[in-house]
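In the lab's daily routine, each protein ends up as an entry in a very long ledger. A line of letters takes care of the sequence, but it says nothing directly about the fold. The three-dimensional part falls to structure tokens, numbers that each stand for a local backbone shape. The outcome of that step, for a single protein, is printed below.
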Amino acid sequence: MPQKKIALLFFFLNTFFLNFTFAQKINEVDKIVAKYPKSFDTTEKLAEKIEKDFDSDSDRARAIYSWIGYNIKYDYNAYLNPPKTQGFSYSSEAEKQRKIKQLNDNLIQKAFNSKKAVCEGFTALYQHLASLMGIKCEVIRGDSKISLRDIGRKTLSSNHAWNMVFFDKKWRLIDVTWGQGYYDTSKGRMVNDFNPIYFDTDPDYFFAKHFPDSGTFLGNKLSKDDFLNGPLIYNKTIEEDYKIKSPNSGIIEAKKGGKIEFEIKNISKSDQVFYLNKKNQAVKIQNPKEKRGGLEFEILNDNNVGEYITIFVGTSSVVSFKIISK
């Protein structure tokens, strides 16, 4: 692989968005919705179209995800320069709720009409369309894990929002903001690149990258430490079901000159597996062993290993760890 391309890949690891699509799994619902108009007169007209074309709540929930993912772009300028929080006065609880609803309605219409939004707009629009079809949907706010510097940070922050949607007798996890595309550092702009992996994501993968403000999911308490100190996983990991078995922490304490042991499921010796050293040079994994449906290998913690190790399969980043050398 050319050195320039390797360096560029490493640079991408430190950008705000890590939603590169390597192996899209487009289904029949996505194909139908891709032919929809980019604009509808009202959200009600869009909901009517989806209800006419699809019979089940699962397909309708997917169609909402697809349409938003195809047509609404992340407003990166608004992310960098967020508008001031709108305050309001009220004389009763009823008036308060009316004004909150009006602000939310304005947010929905702005996202729908302008085709731009940040996560609050994406999630509010998704919830609104779901409600028009009688599908239970909640907006969840919390923390997100998107960059190398997030590994081992000390505190949680409320910086993101996503949806929980109920269909087929189960609550499902959905992040349509991350499904719509990514920030291209070379072009300095957002790129729409629809990715289905954040629709009905496996909770184990989802909560490696999301932590709700409540710290719970359907009554089950989530581990703040596991989230903060866990490794950083990428889209390819979710797409290919690469399970990171070892190390089980995102923070590796290792002696200089010692070996760090790794185990990743659903990877084989036929895959091209490597990591980048601190000079952004690709280093091929030597003498990997296939065991228990995965690959076991070692990396020498020498002077060429930097503060982070990111494992690649082919051209796709799979997992990153923070290295603390003793």
In short: The chain has two domains: 18-230, 244-325. The chain is about 30% helix and 25% strand. The first strand starts at residue 73 and ends at 74. Residues 17 and 227 are 18 Å apart (CA to CA).
